[in-house]
TrEMBL record:
InterPro entries assigned: L-PG_synthase/AglD (IPR022791)
The species this protein was found in: Geoanaerobacter pelophilus
Ranges annotated as spanning the membrane: 6-25, 45-65, 77-94, 115-137, 157-176, 222-240, 246-267, 298-321
Location within or outside the cell: Cell membrane
Principal location listed in the UniProt entry: membrane
Lipid bilayer topology: Multi-pass membrane protein
GO CC term (a single one): plasma membrane
Source species, domain of life: Bacteria
Protein name (record): Flippase-like domain-containing protein
Keywords, ordered alphabetically: Cell membrane, Membrane, Transmembrane, Transmembrane helix
Amino acid sequence: MGKQGVDYKFWVGIGISALCMGLLFTKIDPHKVAAAFREMDWRYLVPAVIATFISFFGRAVRWHFLVLPLKKVPLGSLYPATIIGYMANNLLPARLGEFVRAYVLARKEGIDTSAVFATLVVDRLCDGFTVLLMLLFTFFTLHLPPGMETVQQRMVAGGYITLTLYCGVIAFLVLLKRRTSWTLSLVGKLLRPFPAVFSEKLIPLLGSFIGGIRLSTAPRELAAVIASSLFIWAFAAWPVDLLLRSFGIVLPFTGSLFILIFLVFGVMVPASPGYVGTYHIACVTALAAFNIPSEKALSVALVIHGVSFFPVIIAGAYHMWREKISFSSIRTTSPEKELQS
């Protein structure tokens, strides 16, 4: 990744974050935001932080099973790498924390970095599929307040479309893994109407990518991946539920899942490090479906974001100190260099 490319994406993200925060604060009375904070029950913060770290521990457990084809790695190595990676996601642009996470584990366990990164691609696919299942479950079981029926119908339709596209991606990857040569040949034929440079770059990239993905086919290990995925997202939604209650907002647990899904899509939008702006506008939009006033919704968004941001940075810095990793090495980690090492 060239320096200019990184700078370009960074400043685009900053611009999007500034635009989102501007849209939020131009329509909000800051005095009402302050009043909402004064009414908050701060005792919910501690269990919310604990639940957040339990979710991260679940990620380390799932990663253990995903990395098994490479090496049996203890949780004592996987958990610090996970926390450091998510800390880097909060501080660095373009989700570079995924590369940092792979780099930290590869460095400690003596595994090829590109092979470790391939396990994180599968890790993200597991997240995507779990979130889509949550989306469908939520939209079919959660009843929004009167007047929001059209919104709910549109989201259910969107959920079906997204699930269909995602299943198509999964099917393509399975086919690419099992019949690599045939699938690459098919991709080449489909790309014939386009300039040759596309196929010259894409086909070798797909071949090297799928060659690096390894996944255990043992039923017990596959079941562990599925169970840990559900565990991860259940504990990711629990802090949302707790922090809603801290503001006196009592929703069914499916309501917390609904908000969490919006947050997931919010962090997918290019933004500044820490997902500032996109995270908050996603939370406010989700809460609007329950007729929560904008000022209170923004207060909730700020607290939920803070719980997922600051404790992870503190924990990540601690684990970096334990692992003898410097901030300078984290900042200068190059995806191309690490994946080729």
